[in-house]
Design a protein that fits this description.
Elements: H1 3-12, H2 16-56, E1 59-63, H3 79-90, E2 95-106, E3 111-119, H4 124-127, E4 134-137, E5 147-151, H5 152-158, E6 165-171, E7 177-188, H6 193-198, E8 199-203, H7 204-210, E9 219-222, H8 230-240, E10 247-251, H9 252-255, H10 257-295, H11 297-305, H12 310-346, H13 353-360, H14 372-389, H15 391-396, H16 402-406
Parallel strand pairs: 3-8, 5-7
Antiparallel strand pairs: 1-9, 1-10, 2-3, 2-6, 2-9, 4-7, 5-8, 6-7
Helix pairs in contact: 1-12, 2-10, 2-12, 2-14, 10-14, 12-14
Length: 409
């Protein structure tokens, strides 16, 4: 170890209390940054899962161009057998076929336009939380029954309840006039007014019969076991579709581009708060090192008179900051990682979260996502900003006059 490192380490502990106060501030800020960034990543993961599992799914198979122009004719032939083939090849039940149409729905009192979704009753609960949000009645058991499930807002607008009949009027895929009478067997409450007012579900086989779809449908929804597995699952699905011309697999980022934009906006606002914390720590380091330099003015003047160059003295101050910041980074990141790892196993919740989760059929805890990025991103920035803060005290030494410095009291 050369003399600069030895002197830096020795000078750092001249005032142990001041050093530990500054290092303690770094440890606390780094611990907080590791936890908050990991919690933020975990909350994004939870938000994505909750949003996608409500209806969209992690991946959808569609006819090429259907996403931009959702026409009835832009459909997939033999959609139920294809969904079964994909389930078998992927080895998962989290695959469900759907059909999509728009129709006028009428009760004895009122009429409303809405989106009709044809679903596979046996598999839809595996890709959507909507079946678990039924507050009145039950979910489908027969894929060919003339039954319908509607949202709570639509039920209130139509003034209907369980057992009442609704008339559906729309256009079929083959250009025919679609008309049917269905029984209301379930009412769901998703908490989203638009969904509860504008969406209803029919069993897929009855949907195909009503809208002249034959064996066609519009999309196959696939959910991954975990968000981190979506890319690998996407590759597997793409390989299955290689022989299916005209079909494409779209991941959640293509299906829900607004979700990614919302996460980016939230991350920007969060980093503004983190920046305030980092700047406060940097100013704490600046204050500590500036006090250290001012206290040792006479010492530095004597060293310069003995032949030490200002460059070497500046390097001494920066090295002291390096040791101090490194200590804060190691201890803060370690403690933050331990805390976050524990919470990533047991989960983290805040008051009222369990009630909200039970209300909307969601997870009742947030699990922080611990990674090398979440551990070292915040502490690394604190470390760099601390070194930058030490530049000013080091630069002051370049303007130090040895004779005047040695006269300082």
């Amino acid at each position: 170890m050369n003399i600069t490192l030895r002197m830096s380490w020795r000078n750092l502990w001249r005032h142990k209390r001041r050093t530990w106060l500054t290092v303690g501030a770094m440890i606390f800020s780094n611990l907080l940054l590791v936890f908050m960034i990991s919690l933020q990543f975990g909350s994004y993961r939870m938000m994505i899962d909750n949003t996608l599992k409500a209806y969209t799914g992690h991946i959808q198979i569609q006819r090429d161009g259907y996403l931009d122009d959702q026409k009835m004719r832009s459909s997939i032939d033999d959609i139920i057998p294809l969904a079964e083939e994909i389930r078998n090849k992927l080895g998962t039940r989290n695959v469900a076929a759907r059909g999509v149409a728009f129709a006028m729905t009428s009760s004895e009192q009122r009429s409303y336009g809405l989106q009709i979704i044809g679903v596979e009753p046996q598999f839809e609960p595996n890709v959507s939380t909507l079946p678990g949000l039924i507050t009145n009645g039950k979910y489908f058991t027969d894929i060919g029954a003339a039954e319908i499930i509607i949202g709570s807002v639509l039920a209130r607008n139509l003034q209907v309840g369980i057992g009442d009949e609704l008339t559906l009027l729309g256009g079929g895929r083959d250009g025919s006039f679609a008309a049917g009478v269905v029984n209301v067997i379930g009412i769901f409450d998703s908490g989203n007014t638009d969904i509860d007012r504008l969406m209803a579900q029919l069993p897929l086989v009855y949907f195909q019969s009503l809208f002249g779809m034959n064996s066609h449908g519009h999309n196959i929804v696939i959910n991954a076991k975990d968000l981190t597995m979506v890319d690998a699952l996407m590759q597997d699905v793409s390989r299955i579709l290689e022989t299916r011309k005209g079909l494409v697999a779209l991941d959640w980022q293509a299906l829900q581009p607004g979700l990614k934009q919302a996460i980016q906006a939230d991350m920007t606002s969060a980093w503004f708060m983190y920046a305030v914390l980092i700047i406060l720590v940097a100013f704490s380091v600046l204050n500590t090192q500036l006090m250290s330099v001012l206290e040792r003015t006479r010492e530095f003047g004597t060293m310069m008179a003995l032949g030490f160059k200002p460059t070497r003295l500046g390097a001494l101050v920066v090295t002291e900051t390096f040791f101090m910041s490194g200590l804060g980074l190691i201890l803060g990141a370690a403690l933050g990682a331990i805390l976050t790892y524990y919470l990533s196993i047991v989960g983290f919740s805040y008051p009222g979260m369990e009630e909200m989760a039970d209300r909307f059929n969601l997870a009742d805890k947030i699990y922080p996502t611990l990674s090398l990025l979440s551990i070292f991103l915040g502490p690394g920035i604190v470390f760099i900003c601390s070194l930058i803060a030490s530049i000013y005290p080091a630069v002051r030494l370049y303007f130090l006059q040895p004779i005047n410095a040695m006269k300082a009291v």
